[in-house]
Amino acid sequence: MTIANNIAAFREAKGWARPELAKRMGTTPQQVERLEKGQRGLSSEWIEKAARALSVTVGDIITPGAANGAPAHHVEPDRLPTRNASAEDGTVDIISLDLSVSMGPGTLIEDMIEEEPVKWDIGHLRILTRSPFHQLRQIRGIGDSMEPTLRTGDRVLIDTAERTLNRIHGIYWIDHFGAHGLKRLRAAGHGRILIASENKVAGGPDFEVDADDLRIHGRAIWFGREL
């Protein structure tokens, strides 16, 4: 997947030619050109290098909502994005959703409202995932069907880059006919997925569904719990 980006816009706003940015990123002008034009995949490593070199946030590098080769929106020099996180202080902003996802029978959700971004340590995130930071979301779980692994009120980090069942017994944020939940998933034969709870008393028995009827929003990769 090619990710549209604002590297060229920030470079031009600083009055730099490509060789100057290349020197600051530790690469070649030809590589910078390929990154700017989307001719090379923009990995999280390249995003972080560009952000440090341009003194902007990691999130500023990515054009909101742009992916799959969509053209980046040009950023005017006098309207550069506000700097609200920086690789210089070792943090990045992760969007926290005003959303409580059921760990029981499922929560009907019509709208997901974004809260203020939550600062995360870049080093910690890189231990958890290599996915781009803009694809991570923080949500909160409710219910007791996933105990003892997850408890009600736990803050859960979701990697939305993982929208297919690619981990054996992984815990995923799912949507089954509009009911959202955090559940453990397992392949159950051709075109079938097993949805399981940790707490069989609270969550009920495991059950199979057609893969086409299940939407995976991402995989849970971390959780935090208040003492």
Features:
single chain; 227 residues; alpha+beta; 434 Repressor (Amino-terminal Domain); Umud Fragment, subunit A; 2 domains; eleven-stranded mixed sheet; 7 helices; 11 strands; 22% helix; elongated
Give an account of the 3D structure.
By secondary structure, the chain is of the alpha+beta class. It contains seven helices and eleven strands. The longest helix has 11 residues, at 44-54.
Approximately how much beta-strand content do the residues carry?
Answer: 25-35%
> What does the largest sheet look like?
11 strands, mixed
Helix-strand pattern: HHHHHEEEEHEEEEEHEE
Unreliable stretches (pLDDT < 50, length at least 5) are 64-87, 107-113
Fourth-tier CATH superfamily name of the largest domain: Umud Fragment, subunit A
| Tally of helical runs | 7
Terminal Cα separation, in Å? 40 Å
Number of beta strands: 11
Query: Whole-number average pLDDT?
Result: 77
CATH topology annotation of the largest domain: Umud Fragment, subunit A
Radius of gyration from CA coordinates: 20 Å
CATH architecture of the largest domain: Ribbon
Q: Which percent range fits the helix content?
A: 10-25%
- By secondary-structure content and strand pairing, the structural class works out as alpha+beta
